[in-house]
Design goal:
By secondary structure, this protein is α/β, with parallel strands linked by helices. It has helices at 22-34, 54-69, 81-89; strands at 2-8, 11-20, 41-52, 73-77. The chain has one domain (2-89): 2-Layer Sandwich (Transcription Regulator spoIIAA). The chain contains three helices and four strands, in the order E-E-H-E-H-E-H. The chain has a four-stranded mixed beta sheet. The protein starts with a strand and ends in a 9-residue tail after the last helix.
């Protein structure tokens, strides 16, 4: 569980791993708040996520909305089936989801 945040030439990549579940979200929010700032572009890589619940989907929604609200280009990449399934159950569609 966790986020690895890397920066390269005005672009940030947030790579999530393992679990996006309610017991993990609080710690992830703390990690995000400690990141000094987002770049002009943010890639949210969720390819290594193996389990997700509605709290995890909510966290991803907030991240994408904040990026959009601040005018940062944001996209989510490599969305695994565990996130797609939960998102579909609660009626959430992310860019890149089919």
């Amino acid at each position: 569980m966790g986020i690895q945040i890397t920066k390269n030439q005005g672009q940030e990549k947030w790579a999530f791993s393992d679990s996006l579940q309610i017991q993990d979200v609080g710690q992830m929010v703390d990690q995000i708040k400690q990141s000094d700032s987002l770049g002009n572009t943010c890639i949210v890589d969720v390819s290594a996520v193996t389990s997700c619940d509605t709290s995890g989907v909510q966290l991803l929604c907030v991240i994408m909305a904040e990026c959009e609200r601040n005018g940062w280009g944001a996209k989510m990449s490599h969305i695994p089936e565990c996130i797609v399934d939960v998102a579909n159950q609660i009626g959430v569609k992310f860019h890149g989801m089919e």
